[in-house]
Structures are given as C-alpha cells and as structure tokens.
Amino acid sequence: MACFAAFSFSMVISILTGPLAIVIVVSVVVGLAMVVLFGYTSDQKAIGIAKDQLKAHLLAVRLYRDQIPVVMGSYGKILRGTVRYLKLAFKPLLYVIVPITLLMVQMDRYLGQTPIPVNAPFLLTVHFSSSDALNDATLALPSEIVMTAPPVHIAADYQIVWRLAGTRDGSYEMNINAGGQSVEKVVCVGGGLPRISTVRLRGQFWNRVFSSAEPSLPENVSIESISINYPDRNIEIAGYGMNWIWLFFILSMVAGFIFKELLGIQI
C-alpha cells in the first residue's frame, strides 16, 4: 500500500510539473494578460459603439430583406463599420501579439521537441558553404556520444550527415572541425524539459530568433548550419497527441473569452 501511495504521488507530481500542466497554466495566464492589456490599450467606449452599430446594421438587413435599397445601404454601412472596428482594435492587438509571439518562441525551446532517447540513433547534419570544406571535416565526440555508422557525404548539397547515439542522460557538446576552425553543437539526451536548439546557424538573424536557441556560428568558418533531428513532442489528451501550440491557442482563447466576460472588457 505504501509503495502504491508513493507511486501515485510521484505520478501526480509528474503530471503537475509536466508539459500539459505548464501549457494549461501559461494559457490561462496569457488569456488573462491578453484581455487586461487589450482593455488598457484600447478605446473601450468607441469599440462598444462600433459593435452596437454593426449589430444594428445586421438587424436592418434581416428586418428589411425585401427592400433592396435598404439592404444594400446596410451592407455598405456594415463594411464601413467593420473597417472602423478593425482600426480601433489594430493597435491594441499589436501590443498583445508581439509579446505573446516572443513568449511562444521561448516556450517552443522547451516544449516543441523532446530530448533524444538514450541509445536511440539521431542524425547530425552539417551544411558547409562549399564542397571543398567537406573533405577535411572531422567530428570530435564526448564519451557519452557514440558514432553508429560512417559519415555520409552529400557533395551536391554541401552536407555531411553523422548517425550518432547518446548513452547517458545529459547535455553534451560535439565539436565539428573544418578548415582549421572548430565549432560546437549541443545535444540533449534523456528526458525532462531541457532547452533544446534543433539548429545552429551562421548569420540569418531573424531565422535564428525563431528557430535557434544557440549563438550564431562565427562568420569566418565554412559551416553554415548544424542541425539535429530531435523528435517532435506531442502532448497526450484523452489518448490523442497534440502539438503544444494548438493546445495553447485553444486554451488561451477560451480563457480570454471567460475573463472578457468576467471583467466586462469589450473586444
């Protein structure tokens, strides 16, 4: 009985600190923050008037549907009213969307992929700037990472692909040497919620902002990118796997509508 209680308690702790709990908590907080921020940065009175006018014009279309001139005039007023409403909502939406987008980018570092399972093979792909750099490229591995097959050279794409496996949980640095220069790529093995970077890039600032969690590769190296094929993470709900971003959107929208009604904020 004691063993069962301990096992049940550990399962509860695992659920409460797992990806699903994190997404639920963050979604509720973001839903509340979206509504409050929209309320403070928008002209609530003007939005209320614009929505009431749209409702009135829609009602006129239904009441006078047999009178073509009235219906056409109402459609024109609906179009103008919609443009007016969008103008009123555009600036507050910018205040909401920008920080949420940056938050989602950071969350995806932890929730988008899972670490490589222990002893499971994975691919390390290095893309070079020219085919000449492929000839002298070498890979130095820590003792916890082993090579499971010879490297594959893809000259047409300026790439070398190594098949590797991790033998122990942890984060490890792998060193790629090319043209007298050495650069590192971190690989996460095992479980948990480590900060994962699927690719390391040279330059490409905006691409790095959204897809990489590592510093830019030095400009003087012949390597353009280093990537690892981490498994995608799916959050299980009632037996169905779902990407965390879809779950986040659904829950944050539901939470936003609930808080909108509770706080009486016009959106």
Layout: helices, strands, pairs:
Blueprint lengths: L1 H15 L2 H23 L2 H20 L4 H44 L9 E8 L9 E3 L4 E10 L4 E8 L3 E9 L2 E9 L9 E3 L3 H7 L11 E6 L6 E3 L2 E3 L1 H20 L4
Antiparallel strand pairs: 1-4, 1-8, 2-5, 3-4, 5-6, 7-8, 9-10
Helix pairs in contact: 2-4, 2-6, 3-4
Plain-language structure description:
The chain has 267 residues and is an alpha+beta fold. It folds into 2 domains: 114 residues, no CATH class; 108 residues, Sandwich (Immunoglobulin-like). The strands form 3 sheets. It has a 5-stranded antiparallel sheet with strand order 3-4-1-8-7. A hairpin with a 2-residue loop joins strand 5 and strand 6. The N terminus is likely disordered.
What are the salient characteristics of this protein?
267 residues; alpha+beta; Immunoglobulin-like; 2 domains; five-stranded antiparallel sheet; three-stranded antiparallel sheet; 6 helices; 48% helix; elongated; disordered N terminus
What is this structure, in a nutshell?
This protein is of the alpha+beta class and 267 residues long. It is 48% helix and 23% strand. The strands form three sheets. A five-stranded antiparallel beta sheet has the order 3-4-1-8-7. It has a three-stranded antiparallel beta sheet with strand order 2-5-6, with no helix packed on it. Strands 9-10 form a two-stranded antiparallel ribbon.
Using only CA atoms, what is the Rg?
Answer: 26 Å
The biggest sheet amounts to: 5 strands, antiparallel
Query: Percentage of helical residues?
Result: 40-55%
Shape: elongated
Strand content: 15-25%
State the separation between the terminal residues, measured CA to CA.
Answer: 53 Å
Regions with little confidence, pLDDT below 50 for 5+ residues: 1-15
Mean pLDDT: 85
